[in-house]
Specification:
This protein is of the alpha/beta class. The protein has one domain: TIM Barrel (Alpha-Beta Barrel), CATH 3.20.20. The chain is 37% helix and 12% strand. The protein contains twelve helices and ten strands. Strands 3-4-5-6-7-8-9-10 form an eight-stranded parallel β-sheet. A two-stranded antiparallel sheet has the order 1-2. α1 packs parallel to α2, α3 packs across α4 and α9 packs across α10. The longest helix has 15 residues. The two termini are 37 Å apart. The model has no long low-confidence stretch (mean pLDDT 96). It comes from Penicillium canariense. Keywords: Carbohydrate metabolism, NAD, Oxidoreductase, Xylose metabolism. This is D-xylose reductase [NAD(P)H].
């Protein structure tokens, strides 16, 4: 099965269901990407700070070499890290990431967070992190406008077919749209029933910006990071609202959660090492929840955010 697509404002088609590469271990990454391609995945969502782009490229190259897919069949996504927001650093790091992946262009290249950090040369520290080479968090001076202007040049040079943003608020999006020559094609946000961000989703979609959800299973992605609010939050997979619908439709709780998003035209990027779950996560557009059922899931909203720098002990207020 291959995912249906959503048409971006750039004119390109993006799969509604993809494979997220966050926390995919280097020693298994190439095989996981290859297996996901064989299973029907075409969108792969990565980032330079995940530290696995070389291995992602190896999995992609293997699938292409074996004739499973062509490059144009894939939708490869990566992100600009915070320490490369200075206008003159955007193109060089994009080119490095492309080289690491062994490809000529990104289908989508995203500003990872709306915060500029002090530049750290990749020769000094790579993959990058929130801290500089001395282990200190230091803010940079690049404005979002400076960064976005450089992002637009990537489209001009055909290094990225589409560009987008992640972790932006409605206010930041509104400001960006005032000066953007190339409008953001996508907005990627933490989005699950405990954090629905309804007004942000509505605003982005009204402006023709496709929304992609990360951490669709809520606290599950963050328990292993020992975040207290994730450890103390009931698992969505065990919530009666979700399990009752899973039973009704003969689906897994994961499929119900992913359908809650995709049915509202929100793209999802789950990952799994298990071949069965890998296939199940892709099969989330062939059944429909009733409108009242969508609303019952949305009613679980608590405004509970897990992916916040403050939760990791970083004194950076974004949200």
């Amino acid at each position: 099965m291959v995912s249906p697509t959503v048409t971006l404002n750039s004119g390109f088609e993006m799969p509604l269901v993809g494979f997220g590469l966050w926390k995919v271990n280097n020693d298994t990454c190439a095989d996981q990407v290859y297996s996901a391609i064989k299973a029907g995945y075409r969108l792969f969502d990565g980032a330079c700070d995940y530290g696995n782009e070389v291995e992602v490229g190896q999995g992609v190259a293997r699938a292409i070499k074996e004739g499973i897919v062509k490059r144009e069949d894939l939708f490869l996504v990566s992100k600009l890290w915070n320490s490369f927001h200075d206008g003159e650093q955007v193109e060089p790091i994009c080119r490095k990431q492309l080289a690491d992946l062994g490809i000529d262009y990104f289908d989508l290249y995203i500003v990872h967070f709306p915060v500029s950090l002090e530049y750290v040369d990749p020769k000094v520290r790579y993959p990058p992190s929130w801290q500089n080479a001395e282990g200190v968090v230091k803010l940079g001076k690049a404005t979002i406008q400076e960064t976005w202007t450089a992002m637009e040049s990537l489209v001009d040079q055909k290094l990225a077919r589409s560009i987008g943003v992640s972790n932006f608020s409605p206010q930041l999006l509104m400001d960006l749209l005032r000066y953007a020559r190339v409008r953001p094609a996508t907005l990627q946000i933490e989005h699950h029933p405990y954090l629905t961000q309804k007004s942000l989703v509505n605003y982005a979609q009204k402006e023709g910006i496709a929304v992609t959800a990360y951490s669709s299973f809520g606290p599950l992605s963050f328990v292993e990071l020992e975040l207290k609010n994730a450890q103390d939050t009931p698992k969505l997979f065990d919530h009666a609202t979700i399990t009752s619908l899973a039973t009704k439709y003969n689906r897994t709780p994961a499929q119900v959660l992913l359908r809650w998003a995709t049915q509202r035209n929100i793209a999802v990027i789950p990952k799994s090492n298990d071949p069965t779950r890998l296939a199940q996560n892709l099969q989330v557009t062939d059944f429909d929840l009733a409108a009242s059922e969508l609303e019952s899931i949305s009613a679980l909203n608590q405004g509970l955010r897990f992916n916040d720098p403050l939760n990791y002990g970083l004194d950076i207020t974004i949200f």
